[in-house]
Design a protein that fits this description.
Length: about 220
């Protein structure tokens, strides 16, 4: 690790995700990343636990995008899954799956796991990695069948991990959140800060939306 990295700001920062929610989270926190969506085939990855699965996918996404960075920069990969009653749930993708899922999880508690992988690239090669998994417990409201149908009809649940959001229409149906709510959105700011520190960087090294440093 270069001891002078903390003084070299800003550093190129790349979000290896096409998620609008992750980008919005970083922007709301004052950071303006580049967005380069990962091209990995997520269906090819299978791990025995939800935690291991999101960890592996986050690493794979960050690594794939890092391989396309010619100079120096930081690449952040993330992946999220919801676990309820020992079952992991990703994106429902279809109306039928989204309805069935909500009927299974309504009135229950679940854990939203988000894997985070930060890769430092220098001179076109990986010189550092830091990874971790954030976990946030959510309690769902006991929706009626009509409420489930109405929510799924909006289309929102189909393409988000777990089939719900807390920063959108799904916010009506989440009773409680224990832990970092940003982790449910798909990117934990406190966790990313710790990963930055492990690689010798601070939040102030990241490119700011207004050109100034983050406090």
């Amino acid at each position: 690790m270069n001891p002078d990295l903390r003084d070299s700001r800003p550093v190129r920062f790349i979000l290896a995700s096409a998620s609008p929610a992750r980008l919005a989270t970083l922007r709301a926190a004052g950071v303006e990343p580049e967005v380069v969506a990962s091209a990995i085939d997520e269906s090819a990855y299978h791990e025995p636990s939800v935690s291991a699965q999101v960890h592996r996918l986050a690493r794979a996404k960050a690594q794939e995008v890092a391989g396309r960075v010619a100079g120096e920069g930081l690449v952040l990969g993330c992946d999220s899954l919801l676990e309820v009653d020992g079952v992991g749930y990703g994106k429902p993708l279809t109306v039928d799956r989204a309805v069935a899922r909500w009927r299974r999880v309504r009135g229950k508690r679940g854990d939203l796991y988000t894997g985070h992988a930060l890769v430092h690239v220098s001179a076109g090669r990986v010189v550092g990695r830091a990874t971790d998994v954030g976990v946030t417990t959510v309690e769902f409201a006991d929706l009626t069948d009509q409420e489930v149908a109405d929510y799924v009809a909006t289309g929102e649940p189909l393409k988000v991990a777990g089939g719900f959001t807390i920063d959108g229409l799904g916010g009506w149906y989440v009773k409680t959140v224990e832990g970092d709510h940003h982790n449910v959105v798909g990117l934990s700011l406190p966790l990313v800060r710790l990963l930055l520190a492990k690689l010798g960087f601070t939040v102030a090294n990241l490119p700011q939306r207004d050109g100034s440093a983050v406090p």
